[in-house]
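dude i think i finally got it to work??
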Amino acid sequence: MSLTVFGASGRTGQSLLHVAHARGHRTTAHVRDAARLGDAPATRVATGSVFDTVSVTDAVRNADAVVIALGLHRDRSTALYSRGTATVVGAMRQHGVRRLVVVSEAAYRRTPAAPSPTPRPPCTGSPTRRPCVNGAYRTPS
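look at this
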């Protein structure tokens, strides 16, 4: 499978690249700054803004699926999610790509008064689900 990851330089994006690489998938990492990709394995790196139609369209070319893992660090008033996702979806339509996964922290807001999240117990699997991958269960196919 050929997978394009937007937001590939972030923690989630880098994790996705590592898992995809380990499973033998071809990957395109779309990032603003290739230097921030670190050691995350990518078959191809496309550099540009998620608002730039040309770089986004190039990144989506020949993809079987797209993952949007964009994250906001400071300014939560930006149109990153709405405009960025619209740009990606437009490029997907242009290239006939029909699979999209969006991972978002947009609703997450930790206030100073809020307690830290309770850590989850280690993943052990379940009789109705396959063993977990990176802390998440995969449902049987």
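The first strand starts at residue 2 and ends at 6.
im so relieved honestly
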